[in-house]
Write a structure and sequence with these properties.
Blueprint: E1 3-14, E2 17-28, E3 32-36, H1 43-50, E4 58-63, E5 66-67, E6 75-78, H2 92-97, H3 101-104, H4 112-124, H5 140-154, E7 158-162, H6 170-185, E8 189-193, H7 197-203, E9 206-210, E10 214-219, H8 220-223, H9 226-233
Parallel strand pairs: 3-8, 3-9, 6-7, 7-8
Antiparallel strand pairs: 1-2, 1-4, 4-5, 9-10
Helix pairs in contact: 4-5, 5-6
């Protein structure tokens, strides 16, 4: 099976202090992949480094066998909801249409094909009725679905998501999960920072346990065990029997 992501000997430091070190990681293509670990484990730092937003101290990253920075062109991204300025004066349709901009290049305006792609993405997350609503007027779950639609409009083969299920309602969580399943059925990969251990086994094919270094990574059934979770979180009893 081909890999969506390959990382070798990656170290990332802030102010000369390593946050991630000796990261070797291969994630399969066409799967739903979770990155799981405690607060401060470096999960968001890893996502930012893959995206080229954080410069590593050492190591290499390849997306679909293409080394970064060129490999970054194959990535879509759903940021943490808390990192977005929701007071920015724009509506839902414009946010989703932004997902098509990268494929247009400089000085080109979105045409019918781009608008159709954005509309299809809105329909996929069931937000088409909110197209002209200001994003500041949406609930947390609706906002997250809009940013998922923007990522869908990018039509990227690999999408990174930083805690897309955090702080949202049950209906939005179910909708996001259904979209993830559709992405997998289409042969696309989702790499998701996830915090809810109770849903890992239900949602994801592959799991990576991270606490500044890789504790374990592989198919969920073999990795999502009390013993490995205890190593990751530093204490036993993380996973309820």
């Amino acid at each position: 099976m081909s890999n969506s992501l390959s990382i070798r000997d990656l170290t990332v430091s802030y102010h000369a202090e390593p946050v991630l070190f000796d990261i070797d990681l291969d994630l399969p293509a066409g799967k739903l992949c979770a990155i799981v670990g405690p607060n401060g484990a470096g999960k968001s730092t890893l996502i930012r480094t893959i995206l080229g937003l954080q410069k590593p101290s050492a190591g290499t990253i390849s997306i679909l066998n293409t080394p970064n920075p060129e490999g970054i062109k194959s990535l879509g991204y759903v940021p943490q909801r808390s990192s977005v300025d929701w007071d920015f004066p724009t509506d839902v349709a414009e946010v989703v249409l932004m997902g098509t901009y990268r494929s247009l290049g400089w000085f080109k305006r979105p045409g019918k094909a781009e608008h159709d792609r954005a509309q299809a993405a809105l329909e996929a997350v069931r937000m088409q009725d909110f197209a002209h609503r200001q994003i500041s007027e949406l609930s947390g779950g609706q906002q997250q679905r809009v940013f998922l639609a923007r990522a869908l409009a990018q039509n990227a083969p690999v999408t990174l998501m930083d805690e897309p299920f955090a702080g949202i309602d049950a209906a939005s969580e179910q909708q996001i999960f259904e979209v993830l399943q559709s992405m997998r059925s289409a042969g696309k990969t989702a790499i998701v920072v996830h915090h809810d251990l109770e849903t890992v086994g239900q949602y994801f094919d592959h799991i990576t346990l991270l606490n500044r270094k890789i504790i374990a990574s592989g198919p969920t059934a073999g990795i999502f065990t009390p013993e490995l979770l205890a190593q990751t979180y530093g204490f036993a009893g993380v996973l309820k029997p």
